[in-house]
Amino acid sequence: MTVLAEGLEFPEGPVALGDGSVLVTEIAGGRLTRVRPDGTKEVAAVTGGGPNGAAIGPDGLVYVCNNGGKWPDVWQGGRMERVDLGKGTTEVLFTQCGGRPLSGPNDIVFDAEGGYWFTDTGKIQGRRRDLGSVFYVTPDGELREAVHPAETPNGVGLSPGDGRLYYAETATARLIGRDVTAPGRLDDAPPRDPSTLTGQLPELAYFDSLALDAAGNVCVGTLIQGGVTVISPDGARITKYLLPDELADRMVTNICFGGPDMSTAYLTLAEHGRLVSCPWPEPGLPLHFQQGVR
Question: Which one of the listed residues 208, 213, 245, 249 is annotated catalytic?
Answer without folding.
Answer: 208
